[in-house]
Write a structure and sequence with these properties.
The protein is mainly beta and 812 residues long. It has 2 domains: 104 residues, Immunoglobulin-like, CATH 2.60.40.10; 570 residues, TonB-dependent receptor, beta-barrel domain (Maltoporin, Chain A, Beta Barrel). The chain has 5 helices and 43 strands. Strand 10 and strand 11 form a beta hairpin.
Length: 812
C-alpha cells in the first residue's frame, strides 16, 4: 500500500509539460536496422509534416501548442505513432519499426552501461524483444514465460503455471549458464550462478527492451555467460507521460494488480518512473502457492544540452512460495495424480503448512553517461544488491547430532524438527565503458567491471520434538563466503569498405573465491580458489547488396565451477573450469513485407561439468568434467506481413547435442537394497541432458478491427519441444516425451479520441495451452543397479493443462 501511494503521489506531483517550441530530429529504421526512405511523417491534427531522406532521417519544428502531440508515420500498412515528448532537443532519436510499433532506440547507449549489448553491426546471433511485444501477453507471468516464443528457448515452472520458481534453457544451456544483466549489471547469483526470477516479480513490466544473445555473444559482465546472455534495459528516456493501472485474474486462484507511472521528460530535465505489483497464485501443483510483491522506481536527470545523463534505479521484490521443488514420479502420479506435491509430507497427518521459501531482494543502481565532443562517450554505473531470506522445512527422524542437539546419555538419537536455511548476502561493485569514435571506419570501446559478493550461509532449528539442551534458533551451521570478480574488455569495429566490417573483442577476467570447504583429510577449513580467463572473440559482417547482412564470428568463453563444486570437494578432486569454443555463421534481412534470418552454430565444450553419479570423498553426488562435448545447430526464423491485418511468423531450431564419451557411476544394491558400492558404465555419443534436437514456434496475428477508437486483435502462438533427456545416459527411461502447446490471445483496445484526457482501455483474454496438452517440461533421474539390473527413478514437473488469464488495463 505504501508503494501504491508513492506511485500515486508521484503521478499527481509530476504531471507538468514542456512549454517551449521544440526542434526535433529522428531516424527511422526497420527491425534489421535498415533506413526507411521516403516515409511520411505528420504531426497529427496539423499540416506540419515531412518525409524521411535516403538515410531514414527527418526533422521538424514543433509549435508550442503541439508539444504534447503525436507524430504519425505512414509505413505503407497500419500507421505507426510516436509522441513528441519522446524527443530531446538537439539529439536525434532513432525509431525502430518492430511489428506495428515504433520503439525508441537511442537511449540504450545514453542512460546505462550497455556497451555489452549487440547492435546491428555486431556479428553475433541475437533477438530483440520490445516493450510493446512484452505487453501483449504480460499478465504477471515470470520473464521466462514472456520469452518462451523466441528461438531455441524452453521454459519450465515448478508450480506448473509460469508464476513462482521458473527456469529458461537456451540452446539446451541450463539457467546457470545463461548470463542475465539489468542495464549492464550482473543479476546471476554469484555462487550458484543461477537466476532466480521469483525474486523480481513482474519485472518485465518495467523493461523497455530485452536482448537475448545466443552463444558466446559479446563480452559481458557477470559469471554465467556460457551459452546465452539476456540483457534487460529499463532506462528509457523517450516516452510519453502515462499512468497505467492493470489487473488480471485467472485459473488456479491467480490474481495480479499493478500500477505503473512515468512522468516523461519534464522541462527541468527530470523523469520519474514508478511501479508496484502484487501477484498471487495457488499453483497448478498442490500447495505450490506464490505471494509476490515487486516494485521499481527510477529517477533520471538530463543535463543542459542533453550531454550528461544521470539515472538512479531502485527495484526488487519479496516472495513467499510454497516449495514444489521435488517433482513427481510416475508411481506418485498413478497413486495421487499429476498435481501431487511430496514437499511437507514428512509431517504426520496434513502436510506442513509453512514449507515455504521466503526471500527479499533489493537492488540499487546509479548510472552516469556523458559525451565529450563528437568522439568520446563515457558510461559508469555503481550498484548494490541486498538479499535476505530462508527456506523452511519440516524434517522427520533427523539425527540430533547433525544439529548440535544434546539429548543426554540416554536421550533419543533422532527427532522431528523444523529448520530454516538462511542466505544473507551483499553484492556491490561498478561497471564502466569508454567509447571512442575514432572515425567513420573505426569504433573502439574499453570497458569492464569490478564486483564483490559477500554471502552468509547459516541454518537454524526453530522447533524440535526432542530439543535436549538446544534453544530456539540455535544455529547448526554458519559459514561465510566472499567472491570477487574483475574483468576488462577491449572491443573494436573497423569498416574496411562500405559493406565489410570486422569485429574484435578481447576480455580478461579474474575470479577470487573464499569459502569453507574440505581439506584432503576431510576436515573443514577456509579455502581460496582463483581463476584467470582470457576470452577472445572476432568476427566479420557484410552488408549484402540487396539488403540485409551476413556474418561470421568465433568466440571463447570460460567459466569457473559453482559453489557446490568448490565446497563439496577436497582440492584433490575439485573439478576444473569449463571452456567453450563457439562459431556462428548467419544471415538476416528485412525486405518489405518479409523478414528472415538463418544461422548455423557450433559450440564445442572442453571439460564441461555434468552429473555422472559419482560420489566425492565425502559421499556427495557431484559434477565431473567430461573431456569433449558439443552442440551443432541450425536456427531459422521468418516473418511475413500478408496484409495490413494478418501477419505470420515463426522459428525453428534443429540441433545435435552430444557428449563424445564419459563414465557414469551407478549405485549398486542387492535384492534387499543393501548398498554394494558403485558400478562404472562407459557411455559414448550420448545426448546432452535437457537439449532437444527440435524446438519450434509459430505466431499468427490478425487485426479483426482497426477503425477509429476500436482495435481488436487475435493471436495464436504454438510451441513444439522435441524429446529431452533428464540425464546424459541417453537411455529410454531417462527421456521426457516431446510436447507442444498453443496459447490463444484475444485483445480489445478502446483508444482515446479527440481531446480525451484518458488513455487507452485495454482488455486481454489469454487462453494458455488451449488444446489441453498434459505435458512435462523438466525432470530429474536417479540411476542405479538393483540386483544386477539397471534401474531409473525419474522425477517430472507436470505443467498445467488449459487455463485462462483475463487482464484489464487503463491508461491515463
Amino acid at each position: 500500500m505504501k508503494r501504491f501511494l508513492l506511485c500515486a503521489v508521484l503521478a499527481l506531483a509530476c504531471c507538468s509539460t514542456l512549454m517551449a517550441q521544440k526542434s526535433i530530429t529522428g531516424i527511422v529504421v526497420t527491425e534489421g536496422g535498415e533506413p526507411m526512405v521516403g516515409l511520411s511523417v505528420l504531426l497529427r491534427g496539423t499540416k506540419v509534416g515531412t518525409t524521411t531522406n535516403s538515410e531514414g532521417s527527418f526533422g521538424l519544428e514543433i509549435p508550442k501548442e503541439n508539444l504534447n502531440g503525436t507524430l504519425e508515420f505512414n509505413t505503407g500498412f497500419t500507421p505507426a505513432y510516436a509522441q513528441v515528448s519522446s524527443f530531446l532537443d538537439g539529439r536525434p532519436l532513432t525509431l525502430q519499426l518492430i511489428g506495428n510499433d515504433l520503439v525508441a532506440a537511442y537511449y540504450f547507449d545514453q542512460v546505462s552501461v550497455t556497451a555489452t549489448a549487440a547492435t546491428a553491426l555486431t556479428p553475433v546471433t541475437y533477438t530483440e524483444v520490445s516493450a510493446a511485444e512484452i505487453a501483449k501477453t504480460n499478465l504477471g507471468q515470470d520473464a521466462p514465460y514472456l520469452l518462451k516464443w523466441t528461438p531455441s528457448v524452453v521454459v519450465n515452472s515448478d508450480a506448473g503455471t509460469g508464476t513462482g520458481y521458473t527456469g529458461i534453457w537456451i540452446r539446451g544451456s541450463d539457467p546457470t549458464r545463461t548470463n542475465v544483466t539489468i542495464n549492464g549489471i550482473p543479476y546471476n547469483d554469484s555462487e550458484s550462478q543461477g537466476v532466480f526470477w521469483v525474486n523480481l516479480p513482474d519485472f518485465s513490466s518495467s523493461a523497455d527492451n530485452i536482448q537475448i544473445q545466443r552463444g558466446v555473444g559479446t563480452s559481458t559482465n557477470g559469471a554465467g555467460a556460457f551459452g546465452a546472455t539476456i540483457d534487460f534495459s529499463t532506462n528509457q528516456i523517450g516516452e510519453e507521460p502515462k499512468l497505467s493501472i492493470d489487473g488480471s485474474v485467472g485459473s488456479f486462484g491467480t490474481r495480479r494488480g499493478s500500477v505503473n507511472y512515468t512522468s516523461g521528460l519534464l522541462d527541468n530535465g527530470l523523469k520519474i518512473d514508478a511501479r508496484y505489483s502484487k501477484t498471487h497464485s495457488d499453483g497448478y501443483v498442490d500447495r505450490a502457492s506464490a505471494d509476490l510483491d515487486g516494485y521499481y522506481a527510477g529517477l533520471t536527470y538530463v543535463g543542459d544540452g542533453a550531454g550528461a545523463v544521470w539515472r538512479f534505479n531502485a527495484f526488487g521484490g519479496h516472495e513467499v512460495t510454497y516449495q514444489s521443488w521435488n517433482g513427481v514420479t510416475q508411481e506418485e502420479i498413478d497413486e495421487f495424480g499429476r498435481t501431487y506435491n511430496s514437499v511437507g509430507t514428512e509431517k504426520e497427518g496434513e502436510p506442513y503448512d509453512n514449507e515455504v521459501d521466503n526471500y527479499r531482494q533489493n537492488h540499487y543502481q546509479l548510472h552516469y553517461n556523458n559525451e565529450f565532443g563528437s568522439k568520446w562517450k563515457l558510461g559508469i554505473s555503481g550498484h548494490y544488491t541486498r538479499g535476505l531470506g530462508y527456506f523452511e522445512q519440516y524434517k522427520a527422524g533427523e539425527d540430533v547430532a547433525d544439529y548440535g542437539i544434546d539429548t543426554g546419555e540416554d536421550g533419543p538419537e533422532e527427532t522431528d524438527l523444523i529448520r530454516r536455511r538462511w542466505l544473507d548476502n551483499h553484492f556491490y561493485g561498478t561497471v564502466y565503458s569508454l567509447r571512442y569514435l575514432a572515425s567513420d571506419k573505426l569504433d573502439i570501446t574499453f570497458g569492464g567491471s569490478a564486483n564483490e559478493y559477500q554471502g552468509g550461509h547459516y541454518g537454524e532449528v526453530i522447533w524440535a520434538r526432542n530439543a535436549g539442551d538446544s534453544e530456539i534458533r540455535d544455529r547448526y551451521y554458519d559459514n561465510d563466503a566472499t567472491k570477487r570478480d574483475f574483468s576488462n574488455y577491449l572491443r573494436s569495429n573497423y569498416k574496411f569498405t562500405g559493406a565489410l566490417s570486422a569485429y574484435l573483442d578481447l576480455q580478461l577476467r579474474y575470479v577470487d573465491y573464499e569459502f569453507l570447504g574440505f581439506a584432503n583429510d576431510l576436515s573443514r577449513i577456509d579455502e581460496t580458489a582463483t581463476h584467470t580467463f582470457f576470452n577472445p572473440k572476432a568476427g566479420l559482417l557484410y552488408e549484402l547488396p540487396s539488403g540485409g547482412q551476413a556474418y561470421a564470428s568465433f568466440g571463447v568463453a570460460q567459466r569457473e565451477p559453482n559453489r557446490n563444486d568448490f565446497t563439496e570437494n577436497p582440492l584433490s578432486t575439485r573439478p576444473r573450469a569449463e571452456k567453450l569454443y563457439n562459431t556462428e555463421l548467419g544471415i538476416r534481412r528485412q525486405h518489405g513485407d518479409f523478414n528472415y534470418g538463418a544461422n548455423v552454430y557450433h559450440m564445442a565444450y572442453k571439460d564441461q561439468l555434468v552429473l555422472t553419479g559419482e560420489l566425492n570423498d565425502v559421499g556427495e553426488y557431484t559434477r565431473a568434467n567430461v573431456p569433449n562435448s558439443y552442440r551443432l545447430g541450425l536456427e531459422l526464423q521468418a516473418g511475413y506481413r500478408v496484409s495490413d491485418k494478418f501477419q505470420v511468423g515463426g522459428n525453428l531450431a534443429l540441433s545435435r547435442n552430444r557428449i563424445k564419451s564419459f563414465t557414469e557411476f551407478l549405485d549398486s544394491y542387492d535384492e534387499n537394497f543393501g548398498w554394494l558400492g558403485q558400478d562404472e558404465v562407459l557411455r559414448e555419443d550420448t545426448p546432452l541432458a535437457f537439449s532437444p534436437s527440435v524446438v519450434g514456434a509459430l505466431d499468427l496475428n490478425y487485426r479483426v478491427v482497426n477503425e477509429g477508437a476500436h482495435l481488436v486483435e487475435a493471436g495464436l502462438q504454438t510451441k513444439y519441444v522435441g524429446e529431452r533427456f533428464v540425464d546424459n545416459s541417453g537411455t529410454e527411461g531417462a527421456a521426457l516425451d516431446a510436447y507442444y502447446y498453443s496459447d490463444l490471445r484475444l485483445a480489445y483496445t478502446l483508444r482515446p479520441q479527440g481531446d480525451s484526457r484518458l488513455g487507452a482501455l485495454r482488455f486481454t483474454l489469454l487462453v494458455r495451452n488451449v488444446t489441453d496438452q498434459l505435458y512435462v517440461s523438466n525432470g530429474w533421474s536417479y540411476r542405479y543397479n538393483f540386483a544386477g539390473s539397471e534401474t531409473v527413478l525419474k522425477g517430472m514437473y507436470p505443467q498445467a493443462g488449459r487455463n485462462v488469464l483475463v487482464g484489464l488495463g487503463l491508461d491515463f
